Amino acid sequence: MVPTTQLFEDHIPLLIPWLGEEEINAVAKVIRSGWISQGPKVIEFENAMAQYVGTKYAVATNACTSALHLALRLSGVGQGDKVICPSFTCMATANAIHHTGALPVFAEINPRTYNLDPEAVAEVITSQTKAILVVHQIGLPADIDSFKVLAKKHDLILIEDSATSLGATYKGQRVGSLGAPTGFSFHPRKMITTGEGGMITTDDAKLAEQARILRATGASISDLARHQAKGVLIQEYADVGYNYRMTDIQAAIGLVQLSKLETMLEQRATQAQRYDVILAQIDEIEVPYVPPYATHAYSSYLIRLKPNCSIKRNELLQSMAEKGISCRIGIQPLHWEPFYRNLYGEMHLPITEDIAQTTMFLPIYPGLSEEKQNQIIYILKKLLKRN
Ligand SMILES: Cc1ncc(COP(=O)(O)O)c(C=O)c1O
């Protein structure tokens, strides 16, 4: 469905969420049902996610940040611990670590996949290291088997941040079912959206049960169970919890979105291939690399400008914007943020820094027409003086 607001009319945006009449009808149905907070639709969405990903359990939350926080806390990460993660990620990855009382330790990424480099991770493991938070960045699974070996060798907890990579596969298996508790995001920049929202997928029955309790203020009984018992059940609080609940309104949107995911994955793959074929012919540009063990979900399409590129990244971004095309800089390294500069002082991660300064996202989203994509490519080539 084409949005009816003016927000998207005067330019090609980085993305438009692919929402339509089905989502609108699903939301209307929930509102008419009289139950709009966490309830039966959330359970249905959790079951659908567990089935899609291939895990025994899925626990819905209000965001991926809270999903990761719960996964870390319930796996045993807490005060004084250190958790290794990339600096080349969203602030939310590290925030989830801080919420447990632990501190992130930033490790280098692989220059081709932009995912954590197992060898760099091995170098920063110390006696204080408790866990590795592996990010499957912008749709591409990290080489999880290498991290499993490391975790086993050093007796570390492994958690996966798959905020951006629902639908991607690693050695034929969908992310979320690769072994460690995994967090997903349903923010509009992700593979499917519920506006805001998150999910933990896991095969660990105890972790799932505890996560359900902690996401809802720590209450032993859910609102729905109490309602179904006509109010005679009384909850207890064995621990301090949070309000990390997803609403049934969000879950109803999520169910429709999940049913469209395969179509969305196909559209993204077709668009990525179109970019790949044309942009790979331009010597100054490096297109995304997909290792043989993975399929890419292309939640984003990140190009890298090589050193021989005649125009600087920020200049190119600005010129694209002036021509009506919204791109974005790649991911800003966390160790450059004021918070971490104050906390850790100057830090250097040369690969991360180089990639952060030379990469940019091009628009990619279900519903982006071939005509508009050709326009993006045409303008990009023109700015690079290639036509
Ligand atoms: C890699 C990564 N992890 C975690 C998050 C946090 O997701 P949410 O906004 O749902 O909390 C994001 C969101 O941008 C992300 O890109």
Can you walk me through this structure?
With 387 residues, the chain is an alpha/beta fold. It has 2 domains: 21-256, Type I PLP-dependent aspartate aminotransferase-like (Major domain) (Aspartate Aminotransferase, domain 2, 3-Layer(aba) Sandwich), CATH 3.40.640.10; 261-385, Alpha-Beta Complex (Aspartate Aminotransferase, domain 1), CATH 3.90.1150.10. It has 14 helices and 14 strands. The protein has helices spanning 21-33, 40-53, 64-75, 91-99, 118-123, 144-154, 205-215, 223-228, 248-259, 261-279, 313-322, 338-344, 350-358, 370-383, and strands spanning 57-61, 82-86, 103-107, 129-135, 157-161, 169-170, 173-174, 182-185, 198-202, 285-286, 294-295, 301-305, 328-329, 359-362. The protein has a 7-stranded mixed sheet, with helices on both faces. A 4-stranded antiparallel sheet has the order 10-12-14-13. A 3-stranded antiparallel sheet has the order 7-6-11, with no helix packed on it. Strand 2 (82-86), helix 4 and strand 3 (103-107) form a beta-alpha-beta unit. Helix 1 packs antiparallel against helix 9 (248-259), helix 2 runs parallel beside helix 9 and helix 3 packs across helix 7 (205-215). The longest helix has 19 residues, at 261-279. It is globular, with a radius of gyration of 21 Å. The model has no long low-confidence stretch (mean pLDDT 96). Bound molecules: pyridoxal-5'-phosphate (PLP). Pyridoxal-5'-phosphate binds at residues 63-65, 89-90, 92-93, 135, 161, 163-164, 185, 187, 198. InterPro entries: DegT/StrS_aminotransferase, PyrdxlP-dep_Trfase, PyrdxlP-dep_Trfase_major, PyrdxlP-dep_Trfase_small. Belongs to the DegT/DnrJ/EryC1 family. Keywords: Aminotransferase, Pyridoxal phosphate, Transferase.
